[in-house]
């Protein structure tokens, strides 16, 4: 018996176990605590015991369903019940030595163009069992050729078939259906870990069409991570260039509305029978296609010519389809946390204004970066959970999972959309900030829905826990009416300002009485938590040596007390600035700018100063009542990329009433997003003229003439001065 047990032990140590699906046998406890079944006279297969001896062996995704784990990497079946795959055979030829050798790592077992180490997250072939060598998430399966349904891979995967959970593209072979191929010109891929390449394409515009399906064309599967197709504003037209250029994955205005895409989790897009994406005369006439590449070894010389084929029909379906984004910005993930949640919401008092009638969600998508582990999007109705739209409990950035619904999910006006992102930061030593690049983290969701006309303008972005849509409508956020508080700070809230000034004037020291007054003022709900941080980022004061010196004195003194010194500094400097200097800049240098006039008002005064040290501008705006009122207000979207020239005008008779902007210290430039409103009634813009308010490094001080509105902006950036020159357009409004 001892010899028999010794033989069993030797057998298991060689990494062999008998097929676990056989009907009879004996259970054997392995030395590492796992168990296996031994059956006599049956085929020997590779056990899970061996998976600890290959990188990410316990985390390889199922090529058919990215939410599942392929538990037997060396076999054609996920449970080890089928024959060995090509990787399993190579592992066998390696003698089951439980060694991740360099030869095995660099070998492309499944011949899909990716070597085994690349697919298993060890692109430099440095990992060994028990080592602390950092691994990337596994990209794909080393023993199954992917994409599994490609012509090349079907011949290599034998009888393997995936049961697709996606709706069938039933109509693409109909006689009325045409197609257009959007293919990237053969281009070199940058030797970067993550990069994006964009290209502009024209669409048929001779009639009205609905896009009903989209299928990818994969040229270089080894590095292509995803494709996103963005629709361009049909009211604006780009000159087609037929060229590829580097981009950041989010094209500049006017091409920012996602209409379809490709990832390993979604090999194709098929619209339901009721809806399609409108192109043509009244729809999109141009699209920007962004190709995302993942090249962890930063290898040079890769090329690609992938693309998308769109299938479209002149037989319009009942509804237009649209895509709505949900996003949280400016959050931070602290280091060393096994679980850290970021929660955002698009509250019911926002959707009741934005969503005109019931909409139907047919697809949900989650998006985080490398620390993301779980993400879900929920619909709440009447204070109770109504429906879970997405729920990814094992999120992998390289294998995103899309949630398709043949039975659409209904969203009603007044429903709340709640999104929760969970991160694991145990691998980090520093705080990870929100960033659209892979250096930071993201918490974003996308919903594909119909009819688009019922939700034409979506504003479901959060600044941390603050829903910006509620800021726009001046709804209470944590007890604070933010816009009213800001607008009334120097008028009805003057008592609050005077209280601090009276006790903390520049001629007084930072006394205990001053600190008590500040502490009392800070009880205002608009001066607490995330809403206070939003205020600090959008209304920092003008740089002033005397004020800064006093603020530093107060900060130094206050470090001996208990209140955080930053609270004293920001609160005091902002209030002093408003009363004694008459100018309160709406942003600080290198800080975001967010300003919107109260409802029914328009911008009447624009001032800006450039500083050569931070190479940035601070801005100030003033508003006056618009005699014609305002209606149909919306954000333009980002109108420029870094260092780009832009020309923007509010559509129709609209005028600018707000601005959102953020700065990047790399290109030393700002991106701009304008808030435009339409006048009420039959009011027309005419007698327009333009003015050049500044030179590079020069201040802007521009008054909007009475009876005129701020219609548009043209701007170009100079890399020498690291500043922008602006041209403002003003138009008269009259009936």
Automatic annotation (TrEMBL):
Residue ranges constituting the Copper type II ascorbate-dependent monooxygenase N-terminal domain according to the UniProt record: 185-299
First-listed, main subcellular location of the protein, grouped into a coarse class: secreted
Keyword Disulfide bond in annotation: yes
A Pfam match: Cu2_monoox_C
GO molecular function, one term: copper ion binding
PANTHER family from the UniProt entry: DOPAMINE BETA HYDROXYLASE RELATED (PTHR10157), MOXD1 HOMOLOG 1 (PTHR10157:SF23)
Family: Belongs to the dermatopontin family.
Protein name as catalogued: DBH
Top-level taxonomy: Eukaryota, Metazoa, Spiralia, Lophotrochozoa, Mollusca
């Amino acid at each position: 018996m001892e010899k028999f047990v010794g033989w069993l032990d030797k057998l298991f140590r060689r990494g062999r176990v008998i097929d676990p699906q056989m009907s009879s046998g004996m259970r054997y406890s392995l030395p590492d605590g796992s168990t296996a079944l031994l059956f006599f006279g049956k085929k020997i297969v590779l056990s899970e015991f061996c998976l600890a001896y290959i990188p990410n062996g316990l985390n390889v995704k199922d090529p058919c369903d990215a939410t599942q784990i392929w538990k037997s990497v060396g076999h054609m079946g996920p449970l080890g019940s089928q024959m060995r795959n090509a990787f399993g055979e190579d592992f066998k030829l390696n003698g089951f030595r439980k060694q991740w050798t360099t030869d095995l790592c660099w070998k492309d077992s499944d011949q899909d163009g990716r070597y085994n180490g690349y697919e298993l997250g060890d692109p430099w072939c440095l990992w060994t069992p028990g080592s602390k060598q950092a691994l990337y998430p596994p990209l794909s399966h080393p023993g199954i050729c992917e994409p599994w349904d490609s012509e090349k891979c079907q011949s290599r995967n034998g009888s393997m078939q995936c049961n697709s959970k996606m709706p069938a593209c039933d109509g693409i072979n109909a006689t009325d259906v045409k197609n257009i191929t959007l293919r990237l010109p053969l281009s070199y891929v940058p030797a970067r870990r993550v990069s994006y390449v964009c290209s502009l394409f024209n669409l048929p515009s001779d009639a009205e069409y609905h896009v009903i399906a989209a299928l990818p064309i994969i040229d270089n599967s080894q590095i292509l991570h995803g494709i996103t197709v963005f629709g361009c504003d049909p009211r604006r037209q780009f000159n087609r260039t037929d060229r590829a250029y580097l981009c950041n994955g989010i094209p500049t205005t006017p091409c920012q509305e996602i209409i379809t895409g490709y990832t390993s989790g979604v090999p194709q897009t098929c619209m339901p029978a009721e809806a399609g994406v409108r192109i043509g005369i009244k729809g999109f006439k141009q699209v920007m296609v962004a190709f995302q590449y993942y090249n962890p070894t930063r290898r040079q010389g890769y090329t690609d010519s992938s693309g998308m084929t769109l299938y479209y029909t002149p037989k319009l379906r009942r509804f237009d389809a649209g895509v709505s984004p949900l996003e949280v910005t400016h959050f931070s993930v602290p280091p060393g946390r096994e679980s850290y949640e970021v929660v955002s919401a698009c509250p019911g008092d926002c959707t009741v204004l934005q969503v005109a009638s019931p909409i139907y969600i047919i697809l949900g998508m989650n998006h985080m970066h490398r620390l993301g582990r779980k993400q879900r999007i929920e619909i709440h109705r009447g204070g109770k959970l109504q429906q879970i739209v997405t729920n990814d409990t094992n999120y992998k950035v390289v294998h995103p999972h899309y949630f398709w619904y043949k039975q659409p999910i209904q969203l009603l006006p007044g429903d709340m959309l709640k999104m929760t992102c969970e991160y694991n930061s145990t691998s980090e030593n520093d705080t990870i900030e929100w960033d659209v690049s892979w250096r930071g983290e993201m918490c974003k969701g996308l919903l594909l829905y119909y009819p688009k006309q019922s939700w034409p303008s979506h504003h479901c972005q959060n600044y941390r826990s603050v829903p910006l849509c509620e800021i726009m409508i001046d709804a209470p956020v944590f007890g604070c009416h933010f816009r009213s508080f800001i607008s009334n700070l120097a008028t009805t809230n003057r008592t609050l300002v005077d209280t601090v000034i009276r006790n903390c004037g520049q001629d007084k020291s930072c006394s205990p009485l001053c600190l008590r007054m500040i502490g009392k003022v800070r009880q205002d709900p608009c001066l607490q938590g995330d809403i206070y941080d939003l205020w600090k980022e959008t209304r920092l004061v003008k740089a002033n040596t005397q004020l800064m010196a006093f603020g530093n004195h107060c900060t130094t003194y206050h470090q001996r007390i208990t209140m955080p010194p930053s609270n004293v500094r920001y609160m005091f400097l902002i209030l002093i600035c408003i009363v004694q200097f008459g100018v309160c800049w709406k942003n600080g240098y290198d800080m975001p700018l967010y300003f919107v006039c109260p409802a029914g008002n328009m911008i009447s005064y624009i001032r800006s100063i450039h500083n050569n040290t931070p190479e940035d501008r601070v801005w100030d705006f003033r508003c006056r009542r618009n005699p014609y009122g305002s209606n149909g207000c919306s954000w333009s979207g980002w109108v420029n990329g870094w260092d780009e020239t832009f020309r923007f005008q509010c559509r129709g008779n609209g005028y600018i009433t707000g601005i959102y902007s953020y700065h990047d210290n790399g290109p030393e430039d700002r991106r701009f997003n304008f808030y435009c409103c339409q006048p009420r009634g039959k009011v027309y813009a005419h007698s327009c003229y333009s003015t050049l308010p500044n030179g590079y490094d020069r201040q802007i001080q521009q008054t909007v003439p009475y009876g005129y509105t701020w219609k548009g902006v043209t701007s170009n950036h100079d890399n020498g001065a690291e500043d922008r020159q602006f041209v403002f357009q003003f138009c008269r409004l009259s009936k």
